[in-house]
Design goal:
Mean pLDDT of chain B: 90
Strand content of chain A: 15-25%
Mean pLDDT of chain A: 90
CATH architecture of chain A: 3-Layer(aba) Sandwich
Low-confidence stretches of chain A: none
Distance between the termini of chain B: 39 Å
Number of domains of chain B: 1
Oligomer: heterodimer
Low-confidence stretches of chain B: none
Largest sheet of chain A: 4 strands, parallel
CATH architecture of chain B: 3-Layer(aba) Sandwich
Structural class of chain B: alpha/beta
Shape of chain A: globular
Shape of chain B: globular
CATH topology of chain A: Rossmann fold
Structural class of chain A: alpha/beta
CATH class of chain B: Alpha Beta
Number of helices of chain A: 11
CATH topology of chain B: Glycerol-3-phosphate (1)-acyltransferase
Helix content of chain A: 25-40%
Largest sheet of chain B: 6 strands, mixed
CATH superfamily of chain B: Glycerol-3-phosphate (1)-acyltransferase
Order of helices and strands of chain A: HEEHEHEHEEHEEEHEEHEHHHH
Number of domains of chain A: 1
Strand order of the largest sheet of chain A: 3-4-5-10
Strand order of the largest sheet of chain B: 1-6-5-2-4-3
Number of strands of chain B: 6
Largest interface: A-B, 34 and 26 residues
Number of helices of chain B: 7
CATH class of chain A: Alpha Beta
Chain lengths: ~300, ~210
């Protein structure tokens, strides 16, 4: 609940009659939340997580605590944190007698982009991750599926496209806003994104339907890296092979490190077929990938207020 | 002609592409580039299509096409179908190699992967699937596995057998499109094998009876 995704979902839920919310995260919520109990807990503190969940005895758990490398965590911590939180939450969930469903975060990276794999997979495609983040997501999914099998409680796995939008710490969003952006050699591969504001739609639809199994959550259409860069009036810089080592080092120094799965996105492309979410959950992204990119580039720069300035 | 109907000038097109204002679909297809390539291919090939009315105006369809030497057929069929129906053919079978697959995907090609073909058919596209290669026996329809027809079954898409006649160095080609074959709903393994065989036989019938 401390990240943008958790806060966004909580904001959608907080006004609903009969809904009581309890959140657990490393960081506090990004917005003021009414009628909400929040606890700052470290992912490794399994005992506290278990106690809090058992005492609250929820009807549903929304597990969004999966950490993307270079978003809020460094790559090695993101894997450890994601697995720690997932294990703690599922462990505690097994002892919650009122629990009816779980919705967990996953991502399109779980499919992997090995040679011959579909660029636009649906949920029946084989899971063969090719990046560390993809492997983290595959591990989280496996834990969730084991829980579902053992306890007969439905678990929906929302495979999000890279989530981008104003204010969310997204490595690919940050990267595409650089003035000169290294991209795959032309013609570069297409990819799809999801807007931050669309995340609650998928999570709440899965919750409402007590859904089970994976659902791709993807904005319509696609863009290529160089197209996304040009749309913001920035300069794409085509890179190939070992050139990526140098360009990633430079962008890292400039404050926009490109994680392994981000490099794969730009060089191999990654989209997803959102048909199952539309047919089973009745939900589609409201923002297309083009809209997401436009919103990313139109995001106003931070304005610093002067503390002593009289404004009225 | 109204001003709005006029084709954009080359300058406008270049400006739009330079500012990223163009469409790419989730399989990498770039309609503007594909249209330009289609016009260029019309210069190289003159295609005569028989049975073009069998291409539906909209909705998914799987074209199962005979292969001679195997180089010109995708472009010839795509050109012929576009000519008679205005629809874009998504050719399955692009090799997943750097640069090559990116270029061919922009023109509408995809991998010969059941996941990609099923997705495209659910999206209402025309997908072309080549039969097995028969370079020495051009009048014999190549093989078709039962797994190859699974995407059409999944999407409920009609299958059209297609035969091509022409030579690699020649300009004139003929494309014959046969009667549509509707896949059964949820067939067992034997049903899928029978469907694949019926489609292969449909292509063979066209090869045996050229017009």
């Amino acid at each position: 609940m401390g990240g943008h995704l958790g806060t966004g979902v909580a904001l959608e839920l907080q006004g609903k009659p009969g809904v009581e919310l309890m959140g657990i995260d490393i960081d506090p919520p990004r917005r003021f939340l009414r009628n909400t109990e929040f606890h700052r807990v470290q992912p490794a503190d399994r005992r506290t997580i278990t106690k809090l969940l058992r005492d609250f005895d929820p009807h549903a758990i929304l597990h969004l605590g999966v950490y993307e490398p270079h978003a809020r965590s460094n790559p090695s911590a993101s894997h450890e944190r994601s697995i720690d939180v997932t294990t703690a939450v599922l462990d505690a969930a097994a002892d919650c007698p009122s629990l009816e469903s779980i919705v967990a975060r996953s991502g399109l990276e779980v499919y992997g982009r090995h040679r011959g794999s579909p660029l636009c997979p649906d949920e029946t495609a084989e899971i063969r991750p090719t990046t560390r983040f993809g492997q983290t997501l595959a591990d989280v999914e496996e834990l969730c599926r084991d829980f579902e099998r053992r306890h007969d409680i439905p678990v929906a796995l929302i495979r999000f496209a890279p989530i981008v939008g104003p204010h969310i710490p997204s490595p690919i969003g940050r990267y595409l806003r650089l003035p000169i952006v290294p991209v795959g050699i032309l013609p570069d591969a297409p990819f799809s994104l999801l807007h931050t504001d669309d995340v609650p739609l998928f999570v709440l639809a899965a919750l409402e339907h007590r859904a089970s199994g994976p659902f791709n959550a993807v904005g319509t259409d696609a863009v290529t890296g160089s197209q996304a860069v040009r749309m913001g009036g920035k300069v794409p810089f085509p890179v190939v092979g070992p050139g990526w080592i140098v360009s990633r080092a430079i962008t890292g120094v400039l404050g926009s490190p490109l994680p392994e799965h981000g490099l794969e996105l730009l060089t191999r492309g990654r989209t997803g077929d959102p048909r199952r979410a539309r047919e089973v959950l009745g939900v589609s992204a409201e923002y297309s990938t083009i809209d997401v990119i436009k919103d990313l580039h139109e995001w106003a720069p931070v304005a610093y207020l002067e503390p002593n300035r009289v404004v009225a | 002609m109204a001003a709005d109907d006029q084709a954009p000038s080359l300058g406008d097109t270049v400006r739009r592409r330079f500012s990223g204002d163009f469409d790419v679909d989730p399989w990498g297809f770039d309609p503007e580039l594909a249209e330009a390539a289609s016009q260029a291919s019309s210069v190289r090939w003159a295609v005569d299509v028989i049975g073009g009315a069998r291409i539906p105006k909209e909705g998914p369809v799987l074209l199962v096409v005979s292969r001679r030497f195997g180089v010109s057929e995708p472009a010839v069929v795509a050109n012929g179908v576009h000519q008679v129906s205005g629809r874009t053919v998504r050719v399955a079978g692009v090799p997943d190699l750097p640069v090559v697959s990116s270029v061919l995907r922009r023109l509408g090609a995809v991998l010969n992967n059941p996941g990609e073909i099923t997705g495209l058919l659910h999206h209402g596209e025309v997908v072309m699937l080549p039969l097995g290669w028969q370079p020495l026996h051009t009048s014999v329809a190549g093989s078709l596995s039962s797994d190859s027809v699974a995407p059409a079954i999944d999407a409920g898409a009609p299958i059209l057998p297609v035969a091509t006649f022409g030579s690699e160095v020649g300009r004139r080609w003929r494309v014959m499109i046969g009667e549509p074959i509707l896949p059964p709903k949820q067939p067992d393994k034997l049903g899928r094998v029978e469907l694949a065989e019926a489609v292969r036989a449909g292509v063979q019938h066209l090869l045996d009876n050229p017009r």
